[in-house]
Amino acid sequence: MKAEIISVGTELLLGHTVNTDAAHVARELAAFGIDLEHVQTVGDNAARLEAALREALARSSLVICTGGLGPTEDDLTKETVARVAGRPLMEDAESLARLREYFGTRPMGENQFKQALLPRGAEAFPNSVGTAPGCAVPVAEDKFVLLLPGPPSELLPMLEQSVRPFLGRRTGAVIVSAMIRTFGIGEGAAAERIRDLMQGGNPTAATYATEGEMFVRVTAKAADEAAAQALAAPLVRAVCERLGDVVYGVDVPSLEAVVVRGLAAVGLHLVTAESCTGGLLAKRITDQPGSSAVFETGLVTYANASKVRLLGVPEDMLAAHGAVSPQTAAFMAEGARLRQGGDLGLGITGIAGPDGGTPEKPVGLVYIALSAPDGVWLRVMRPQGRYLGRSWTRRRAASHALDLVRRRLAGLPLEAAYAKDAASVDDEPIPPAF
Amino acid sequence: MKAEIISVGTELLLGHTVNTDAAHVARELAAFGIDLEHVQTVGDNAARLEAALREALARSSLVICTGGLGPTEDDLTKETVARVAGRPLMEDAESLARLREYFGTRPMGENQFKQALLPRGAEAFPNSVGTAPGCAVPVAEDKFVLLLPGPPSELLPMLEQSVRPFLGRRTGAVIVSAMIRTFGIGEGAAAERIRDLMQGGNPTAATYATEGEMFVRVTAKAADEAAAQALAAPLVRAVCERLGDVVYGVDVPSLEAVVVRGLAAVGLHLVTAESCTGGLLAKRITDQPGSSAVFETGLVTYANASKVRLLGVPEDMLAAHGAVSPQTAAFMAEGARLRQGGDLGLGITGIAGPDGGTPEKPVGLVYIALSAPDGVWLRVMRPQGRYLGRSWTRRRAASHALDLVRRRLAGLPLEAAYAKDAASVDDEPIPPAF
After folding, report:
1. Most buried among A235, A309, B258, B281, by the most CB within 10 A?
2. What interface predicted TM-score (ipTM) does this complex get?
């Protein structure tokens, strides 16, 4: 089956909005093995949209339009498709009921009612977030135009709830995918380890690098969900085995989510003490709803005086080794745990840059410590190649801290030799006795 | 002048990459007043690219291709354009010299040399970041195809360094723009205030809403930069006057940057005490290089016990009013300032959600306090419509705290009645005597 996307919206042609919708739709089509050969963008202009539609329908059996479904006069995708398909707009009772429910007691303008009109014979796709429903409009034997809303917050649920089942029925296929998430290995090193596993056509495995983490997505297509799951499962297992304990979860939201859940499961409390990350670690932990069960206190001790006062870091030690040292990280983690009454303490100190580096302590150098009743463990981020920026350095340092907790909770060795990072930073564990 | 964009790359059709290039190019065209009516995306396929090119050239006098300029066999944009333009590829001496310089002593493969070939008569656009130069290929009288690299890191400098001057020569114009940034007014209310100022064709003013803030971009076009600046300046002033003291800066990076600079300018230190924002406020402050001059300590007091221990919030007051109350926010800000030795203290407490709300204290309710030697000021974020999520609520609460400091530093009234927020949250100041 061949498909095309037509993105509708003058805001796209002015560059006010980036066309993320096309990528979201494209990924769905690719998962079903549907060939996408053209994407077109046109403005809120009926004549040009009609020309684009006719051109697309001449080439392809599935045309997906995003945008232009709202209540304003600019929104004319539905009217144009109705005309091209020869299917006049009619009131859809269910869509009207949903619209009334959405507005409740608030007044509904004449233009809002327009959203309950669909081309005759179209299959409605309910909008679980906004007001404008989508739909599938039959145009000819085995030829359809899908109308989908432009805002990604409305498009994404509709893709999952309505478009995926629709495509499944047309292709007789169900797609499942699993995301294997790792921390502590670069994309190049990971691809090297699973190269042969990435050659298959169904199921497929592909690597994604993002913000200092590396993911592998496994996707399988089969006649029903159970068969697709059965196809995907062995590849998921194989990828996890090859990558080893850098895998922190499959289909989990984030490293911090795994850490918060892990702490909650065993009833442990974590205290953080941050210098160069300046609150980012605490922020990532408290991004998780329910984090209050495992996190009561975080300290941002940006100045040396704060490290001394709040964490009890010894002044003479600071004078001897400096604020950016494994010793300071260890004292911060210990002080956080002991003075603030936690079960585990984390300390981070480093030079996030872009200024403040010296030949001995360059920009990008960060020490991360985990304190527990039975010892302190350390890691160092040591820049080797190009400095990747303040934001990257801070995020990666916070991830290292979370990963130390993750590994401790999982009973994994904290001194493990980590794979060299593809992103030009060499993150090493340090033996406890520095 | 009419223009079209053709984005080339199979990764776009698979949804692996979002087409940000099209938005970058679209903004450049819009700034020069060039009409963009179509954007097409095709894969790495010569026949479909050629068809798209011929279609675009029939409609428009400027066609801009992004992607497919690299050294691999997939990269065939240049070859295809050369064929359509009837201008065979020839070695460009300057491009070859730049390529040799880029590689230095490293070996250069045969395929790398291919990048120094350009269609005969094309104007080269040097690539300041990567290896593949761009170019402008004349196709007919006053008809051009521009070839630009796909990676945004290469595209963006080339747009600024080569494409903008090229378009300036073709249109006889130079473009300047200014971004007016605000906090405390919604997009709808802002547009209402400046509606007449947004009607002009040159200079133009347009609103942008993003992450709870609202920006106005003013763009002017003239024969040279001084004339463009002279055209833009009165409109920038007029927009700032109409919007009033919700404007926190023109062409500044962020609210936190303005606050950190403002504190540094007068030598004041800030201490933060966060509950529901969980470190986000400290994180945003320390995102700024050099923030150590104004920020020494931040406390994340997520639990009541932490608020009592670290900030001296009275236990009986917590019992009487609850952790989410204007009283607690005020005690947190006071405790932060007095106990941690700052000049100004900020306190934030609220219910970020999605859980934890009650009828009296709903999800989204947040109190924000600023403590100074001469008093305490408070704001409340009170949800009125749809809950916009944990992340939005936290970000907006941190912005309110920063805005309180910004207004104090600027000598603005802290009790000012704020415009109702378009994003369904009513953010009110509270009189100091609650």
Report:
1. B281
2. 0.79
